Structure formats: C-alpha cells, structure tokens
Amino acid sequence: MNAFTRSIVQVFRGSAKAFQTFPAAIACAFGFAVVTLIRIQLDWPQQEPYNFLFNCLHWAFAMGAVFSLTVITAAQSRINQKKAFLAANLLGVMAAAVTFLALYQFGGTTPEGSHYAVVTVLAAARVSMAMLVSFLVFIILAGYPKDQSDFSRSLFMTQKTFFIAIIYGAVIMGGASGVAGAVQALLYHGMSSKVYMVIGTLTGFLVFTIFVGYFPDFRKGEVDEHREVAQKQPRFIEILFGSIMIPIILALTAVLLLWAGKTTMSGIGASSFVQLSGIASAYTIGGIWLHMMVTNYESALAKFYRRVYPIAALVILAFEAWAVVIQLGKSGLKTIEYSFILIWIVALAAAVLLMIRKARSHAVIAVLTCVLAVFSVLPIVGYQDLPVTAQVNRLEKILASQGILQDNQLIPSAVQPERAVRESITDAVDYLASASEAKLPSWFDRRLAQSDVFKDKLGFDKTWPEPEDMPGKDNYIATSLMLPAEPVDISGYRWAINMQMESVKQMGNVNGKEYITIDGDKGTYRIYWTYPANNNIPSLKIMKDDRVILEQDMNSYLDQIAAKFPPGKAETYQAALDDMCLKLETPEISVLLVFSNIDISLDPREDRINYWLNLDELYLKEK
User: Fold this and answer.
1) Are 195 and 222 within 8 A, CB to CB?
2) Which helix (H) or strand (E) holds 369?
3) DSSP state string for 159-193
4) Most exposed residue of 20, 41, 417, 458, measured as fewest CB within 10 angstroms of its CB?
5) DSSP 3-state of 344
6) Between the CA of residue 283 and those of 265, 279, 307, what are the distances in Å?
7) What span, in angstroms and rounded, lies between the C-alpha atoms of 286 and 322?
8) How wide is the angle at C-alpha 202 spanned by C-alphas 198 and 206, nearest 5°?
9) Rounded Cα distance, 392 and 440, in Å
10) pLDDT of residue 503
C-alpha cells in the first residue's frame, strides 16, 4: 500500500473513529442532517407552518455539535476519565436541548403580514457567537500540552483538517451527483431534483465526520504521532505564507501608512468609511492571522514581518481611530461603526500583546475575541441595542432643536430646516426604520421611511447628500423609487388598463409595436407605450381612429423626478403617491399614468444615463 492510499484509508478510519471519540458531536450533526432531509421531503406550502421549528432545531443541533467538540476535548485533554468523558457528552446534548428551548420559547418573532414565526436576527446572532466562542476555545484546548503544540499550530491543524474534509466532500459530492445525473439521463428521466439535495446533505454529514475524525488523540498522557502530521505545514503552504502572503500584507501596510501620512497632511478626505472599515478590518484580521501562521518561521522575511507588523498596526490604528471619531460626529453610532470599534479594540490589544508577549499572546488574543463576541450580543450594549439608542438620542436632539419633537409628539416644521439638518434627520430615520427588531420610542412611526409619511409628519421631503458628496460618486449614482401601498383616486376615469409588457403583447402588434385597443363611445383608441431604440426614455402615444391625439415622451416627467430625488442613493425608496403618478390632458381624453417603480442610473465612466419606468396602470376617460 503506497503513501497516498494509506493517507486516504487513514482519513476514513478517522471518520469512523469519530463516532467513538466525539459521539455527542456526531449525534448532533446527524440530527442536523435528519432535519434537513425532512425539510427536503416537504414542499414549501407543507413546510412553512413548521419552518420556525425546523430553524430552531437546526440552530440547536449546530450549537450542540460545536459545543460537544469543545467540552469533550476539554475532558479528554485535562482529565481523561470515563466519567468526565460521559459528562462532557451529556453537556453537549444538554447544550443542544437548552438552545432549542431558548430559541423556541424566546427567540421567535412574527413579522408583520406573516402568519408564522421566524427566528429573530438577534437570537441567531447570539447562537452564532456562542458557537464562535466554543470553536475558539476548542482551538485553545487542542493546543495542549505545550510540549506538543501551541495555539498557532492548533489553529493551522484546524484549518488543514477543514480543507481536507472539504476536498474529500467535494469529490464525493461530485462523484455521487455524476452517478445520479447518469441515472436521470439514461435510466429514469423523471427522477426528482431532491435526489441531489439528499446527496448534498449526506455528503455534508460525512464531511463533518471526516473533519472531526482527522484530529489526533487529545487524551491526557497519550502521545499521538498523527498530531505532528496534522500540525505540520506542507512545503507549498510555507511558500504561500512566507513568500507570497507576507509581501501582500506588507504592501497593504505600506498603502495604509501612506494613507495615514496623507491624512496627516490633508485630513480624512472623502473616502468612504464603509470602504475604509472593510480594508482596515481585512488588514487587521488577516495580519494577526498571518502572524500566527508564521510564528515559527525562521526566514528573514518572516522575522521582519513579525517585528514590523505590530508597530505599523499601532500607527495605522491611531489614524483609524481618528476616522471613527469623525464618522461618529457626522452620522452617529451605527452597526458598521460599532463592529469596526470592536475589531479596532481587538487589533489594538493584539498589536501591543504581539510586541510584548509575541507567540504567547495568541491564546490571549483569542480569549479577548471571545469576550467581545459575547459583549456584542448582550442587551443594552450589544450591536442591536447600542447603535439604536445612539441614533434615537441623535434624532431626538436634532428634532427638538428644530421644534419638531415636543412632548413626545411630532409637529411638522413650519420652516424648512437647513439642508445638513434635513440630511441628518433622513439618515437617522432611515436607519431606525430599518431596525425591525429594535425597541423604538412611542413617538417614532416606522412608516416614516415612506416619503409621503415623512413629509406629512415632519413637514419637509427626505433629503440625501448631493451626488458629489456621496461615496463612490465617480462610479455609479442612481435614483430608485417605488410606488407606496396606497389607494389611487380614479374617480371619473372609465377604463383601467394593465400596461405590463406581457399584457400589452397579447393585445395587438403593428409594425413591431405593441398596443392596446379600447372601443369607446366616440371612437376606437390605440395605446402605445414604447421605448425608442436610440433613447431609453419611453413615450406614450394614443391614436383615435388612426389619428394621433396624444404623443408625449417622459422627458419632462423624469426631469421633475431627478430634481426632487437627486441620484445618489443605492437603496430603493417609497416615493409619495403624487410623485409616481402623471396626469395628461387633451381636448378629447384625460389620462392618468401610475408607475410601480422608477429607476434612473448615471454611469460617469460610460457617460450614460439609463432610465426605466415601469408603467403599472393607465386610466383613461373620454371628454
């Protein structure tokens, strides 16, 4: 048997051994797979009433699998007694049961307009953080004893095990799906697509057993030769980390240091905080991770990186803190700022610890990450409550200063506030209205997100920053409006015509142009709604007995929309009803157009403006 074959056999033996080594974790994974198979068999109408139950079970089994992996490793590596092993497995099962009961009893909410409960985002986040903490603790425990391992080698072993399991899983999934495809093509054409879902589920369970089974024997007092193999970095990985990734992180360090120097000379500038936070977060997480991966390297480049990264990180973090302070002054604390601050705290502590304790700091950094992960989902100070509280306080302060909020009542402003004030109010209102699960003050109406309700209650239109002030203005700016769910006054109109293109195409066609015909008291009308080939601004033409009585393009209407809603926001907004309707008059007919959505996008690089008007209904009457 050659080395390759022995390696494959060893992987599958480990997979089988996982049932004995981590029985509770395997049982939870099996439960997860069973729930998935049941959901596959049930079509959505039958599944929907049980969707909340199934989601609770999925979260509970996932939590039980990860927690079991951790507590069993703790019992085996620290105690290594049968009673401790049994107790650890029971704790894993209890963790799954407690998670299920907590989610089912307290983690559900029924969205507006729905008949069935769903797991709240916050409840899912709390279970996710518990799983993250459990997994990081497992990596710490797997790095014991110190004479055989440490945190960096344990982390690499976990990553290596994960990718080995994924590769085996991909091969199994590809092969089994190929066989199923051959059966469907050659033997049984009516085979259900659910077969592939079942294959995927079973493969996923097998992948988990391979993942768990590849780990070495963690029992106290045992020396497993497989540990050295599992922890060893292959030569191509050493080249990847030491000769490719280190230069990439150093190059990004240089870019961020240049940004810091530019910031010193000219201020923060117009850089998007979202872009900055994304780049900085990737640099922080990637840099710390790479430091752990190369902590045992002896090459000159690796030693240089381990010395330089913490110092450079401290310099960059100081300027990032400045950027955060400026952002908080502009728009207050939101989820993005909150997340970035937590990552900043981890990065600052990590940089200091790496300078002082070097490799011994890795486990401490992991523990700090666990603490902040738990902190982020706590009541009052968590990622959901604290930003909402900050935005409520910000909005109350602005509204009170403008005389709009008095005695917990909104009073429309008689005088239009300054543009900066209107922009701040719009920004805070949109953020709070989108916080669907947050507790908001009694005076705040979630319908304020709608443009007409906003204007009615505050006394002015929603206002967003001008295009030149918007992040990414050189790439893409747009206006996107949606018809509000309100009744349309159509009194006096005789005909209502569905102008969706599929309906139009079914009616008639002359010279390639679709039209709708109406037989009126005073003649026969043909209604054309067309997009000219050389211009994407649509036009309406109505003919009466082969005579044009109305021909109108939408240029002037689009100019009005663009003036009232300057392009710049990527989101879709509910406009007022009047904004989405257009009345046209001629001596012979009256017409009312109702648009379901309007999109205007500008691409400066292509020097092009794109328009899309979705005409929903046309109402017509004869005079």
Assistant:
1) no
2) helix 362-375
3) HHHHHHHHHHHHHHHHHHHHHHHHHHHHT-TT--T
4) 20
5) helix
6) 23, 6, 16
7) 22
8) 165
9) 8
10) 46
Burial of 210 (C-beta count, 10 Å sphere; 0-12/13-18/19+): buried
Report pLDDT for 473.
Answer: 47
Read off the DSSP letter of residue 490. -
Are the CB atoms for 22 and 72 separated by under 8 Å? yes
420: Cα within 13 Å, side-chain hemisphere = 3
Give the contacts of 251 (CB within 8 A, at least 6 positions apart). Answer: none
**Structure token digits, residue 551:** 């021909």
| Phi, psi angle pair for 602, to nearest 5° | -120, 130
Here the tokens at position 368 are 């700090």
Rounded CA separation 261/447 (Å): 45
Q: 401: Cβ–Cβ under 8 A, 6 or more apart, which residues?
A: none
Tell me the whole-structure pTM to 2 decimals. Answer: 0.77
Q: What length does the chain have?
A: 623
Which pLDDT tens digit goes with each residue over 456-472?
Answer: 999 998 888 765 444 44
**Cβ neighbour number for residue 29 with a 10 Å cutoff:** 27
User: What pLDDT band is residue 389 in, cutting at 50, 70 and 90?
Assistant: very high
Amino acid code (one letter) for 305: Y
Q: Which token pair is 77?
A: 């590596």
Please choose, from the candidates 310, 376, 361, the residue with its C-alpha nearest in 3D space to the C-alpha of residue 133: 376
Kindly give, in sequence order, each residue whose CB lies less than 8 Å from that of residue 39, ignoring residues fewer than 6 positions away: 47, 54
Phi, psi of 525 (to 5 degrees): -110, 135
Q: Which two tokens stand for residue 60?
A: 């509970």
Sequence-ordered strand ranges (E) for 429-482: 477-482
pLDDT at 589 over 70: yes
Q: Measure the CA–CA gap between 96 and 64, rounded to whole angstroms.
A: 4
What single-letter amino acid sits at 416?
Q
CA gap 115, 205 in Å, rounded? 33
Is 396 in contact with 443 (CB distance < 8 Å)? Answer: no
Q: What is the per-residue pLDDT for 92?
A: 97
For residue 194, what are the CA distances in angstroms to 40, 178, 559? 7, 14, 51
Band (611; pLDDT cuts 50, 70, 90): confident
Per domain, the residue ranges of the chain are 3-231, 235-375, 385-463, 473-622
134-159 average pLDDT score: 94
Beta strand 589-603 with 477-482: parallel, antiparallel or unpaired?
A: antiparallel
Question: What dihedral do alpha carbons 25, 26, 28, 29 form, nearest 10°?
Answer: 120
E strand or H helix that includes residue 598: strand 589-603
The sign of the torsion formed by the CA atoms of 584, 585, 588, 589 equals: positive
